[in-house]
Specification:
Layout (H helix, E strand, L loop, with lengths): L1 E3 L3 H9 L12 E3 L2 H11 L3 E5 L7 H8 L7 E6 L7 H6 L4 E4 L4 H27 L4 H9 L5 H11 L6 E8 L6 H18 L3 E6 L2 E7 H7 L2 H10 L2 E5 L9 H12 L2 H4 L6 E2 L20 H16 L3 H17 L4 H16 L3 H4 L10 H6 L3 H20 L5 H12 L6 H7 L4 H12 L3 H18 L4 H7 L5 H12 L3 H7 L3
Parallel strand pairs: 1-2, 1-3, 3-4, 4-5, 9-10
Antiparallel strand pairs: 6-8, 6-9, 7-8
InterPro entries: CheY-like_superfamily (IPR011006), Homeodomain-like_sf (IPR009057), HptR (IPR051552), HTH_AraC (IPR018060), Sig_transdc_resp-reg_receiver (IPR001789), Tscrpt_reg_AraC-type_HTH (IPR020449)
Protein name: DNA-binding response regulator
Pfam families: HTH_18, Response_reg
Length: about 500
């Protein structure tokens, strides 16, 4: 809108006297006299002009008379003092919407603006109906999805489109990759989709912002089982597809569109290699598994979780390994962690898990069925998680296939992790045993208690390090004894001399 007054104080007050946006207007230009007002009106083409009657040079009435020659459909409001009331008749003849007296009464101004706003909406509705008689459905639907379309216009559009449905949903699609035939393939998919949707009265097809779209009658879609046909179409044409939430109110249709658009622009987080549709409820795809809620996950914590998962895999204990994997995935997904960081975490997990796979070390196919390089090439978070989860489950299962290997796995674990704070209860949890039973089985098959066996393993490695000339306190720490005095006592008990003496003498 354009404000015209020769008093700067009046102009400043008009800017803030009411919330112009409430009535669909925004102050885009100002002028200090009638002649400048004509110039500004030509430049900004306002829908509403508010002007003082008495101004030097070209007065408000003459200005409006001139502006009406090129803005016949604009609305006009005149401001005047009591002595100017003789201008009222001329103002009416010029089609001025309102004639307000100074000082301006805020309530009176708001009533005038509300009337102008309502009149303009009615004019837009009439114009829209005239245009709708010849406009294709696609254009009308695009207008319905526009943010500027108010509820009254939306209702007219819905009636014209025959869309007073119980439930609405927007689905958008685009080609997964740019190829030489991408445009032709996209057009074929669009035409095929439009024909099917129209023939089965599922909704209305459209194209917007480079996406193929469908405004679905969601109730009809679910009741008649057309989902599989859509899935086949999208797969056949290699389409990446997203769906906004189903909504029961047409006023939420724009929200469904925006959500579908957001999903399509972030395919790594939302796409699924088993289902090409992102964001659709269970009939199309399932969400990533949820884990415990937590604060933002830092890199160190994720690394610790990865080691915990590997420990369970090494023990052949599948259930907690998979639970921690799911929990990690949910955290990364919820925090929208960078794609590169997510792939790096999974690739490192696969790399370390392969080291636990006996088959892989003997040049046989790995039970994992996935390599770190595969992770970096994969386009979707869900797909990565599914493949790694399947591979880790298979690896755990293979380690459990021979119950006679339970103790060798436990002993191997001790030799790999002797420098960590190992306890029988911790290992019992890892290997999915009762701690009392594990202790008895351990002593029966080794002839020693768990603690005695662990001490001997640690002392054995300590002797090797001392032979290499390492310092006693560092050796103690490296083999799992953070207290040097405790290490000294243990070493002397099993070896018969102190660590420093052993180091100096070079004894075997």
């Amino acid at each position: 809108m354009l404000l015209v007054d020769d008093e700067q104080a009046i102009l400043a007050g008009l800017r803030t006297i009411v919330d112009w946006s409430k009535y669909g207007f925004e102050v885009t230009a100002e002028a200090a006299n009638g002649r400048e007002g004509v110039k500004k009106a030509k430049e900004c083409q306002p829908d509403l002009i508010m002007a003082d009657v008495r101004m030097p040079g070209l007065n408000g009435l003459d200005m409006i008379s001139e502006v009406r020659s090129f803005l016949p459909h604009a609305s006009y409001v005149l401001l005047t003092g009591y002595s100017d009331f003789t201008y009222a008749k001329q103002a009416i003849e010029l089609g001025v919407s309102n004639y307000l007296l100074k000082p301006i009464d805020t309530q009176e101004l708001e009533e005038a603006l509300a009337g102008i706003h309502q009149k303009r909406k009615q004019q837009q509705a009439r114009q829209l109906l005239q245009e709708a008689n010849d406009a294709p459905e696609e254009q009308l639907l695009a207008r319905l999805l526009a943010p500027s379309t108010d509820s009254e216009l939306a209702e007219l559009l819905l009636d014209k489109l025959e869309m007073p449905w119980d439930s609405y949903q927007i689905v958008l699609a685009n080609r997964q990759e740019e190829q030489g035939d991408s445009r032709d393939e996209k057009e074929r998919a669009r035409d095929e989709l439009a024909l099917y949707v129209k023939a089965n009265r599922l909704g209305i097809g459209f194209e917007r912002e480079g996406f193929i779209g469908i405004a679905l009658n969601n109730v009809q879609m679910n009741n008649d089982g057309h989902s599989q046909w859509l899935l086949d179409l999208f797969r056949r044409h290699r389409m990446l597809v997203s769906a906004g939430p189903a909504v029961s109110d047409y006023r939420e249709l724009r929200h469904s569109y925006e959500e579908a658009r957001r999903l399509l622009k972030n395919p790594f987080y939302y796409s699924d290699d088993e289902s090409p549709i992102m964001g659709v409820p269970q009939q199309f795809c399932s969400p990533l598994p949820k884990g415990a809620e937590s604060d933002e996950t830092d890199r160190d914590e994720l690394d610790q979780i990865r080691q915990k998962i590997l420990s369970y895999i090494e023990a052949g204990n599948m259930k907690p390994a998979i639970e921690w994997l799911d929990r990690s995935a949910w955290r990364m997904y919820r925090e929208r962690m960078e794609e590169a960081r997510i792939k790096s975490w999974y690739a490192e997990l696969v790399k370390e898990a392969k080291q636990l796979d006996a088959n892989a070390s003997n040049d046989q196919p790995s039970k994992l069925g996935v390599d770190p390089a595969d992770i970096y090439k994969h386009p979707s978070f869900r797909g990565i998680h599914r493949r790694v989860k399947s591979g880790l489950s298979a690896l755990c299962q293979s380690r459990l296939s021979n119950q006679e290997q339970a103790l060798p796995r436990l002993l191997d674990y001790i030799h790999r992790h002797y420098n960590e704070p190992l306890r029988l209860e911790t290992l019992a949890e890892l290997f999915h045993y009762n701690s009392s039973y594990l202790g008895k089985m351990f002593k029966k098959q080794t002839g020693e208690s768990f603690n005695c066996y662990l001490d001997k393993v640690r002392i054995g490695y300590a002797k090797q390090l001392l032979k290499q000339g390492q310092k006693v306190h560092q050796v103690a720490k490296d083999v799992g004894y953070p207290n040097p005095d405790y290490f000294h006592a243990k070493f002397k008990r099993y070896v018969g001399q102190s660590p420093s003496t052993y180091r100096s003498s070079g004894s075997k």
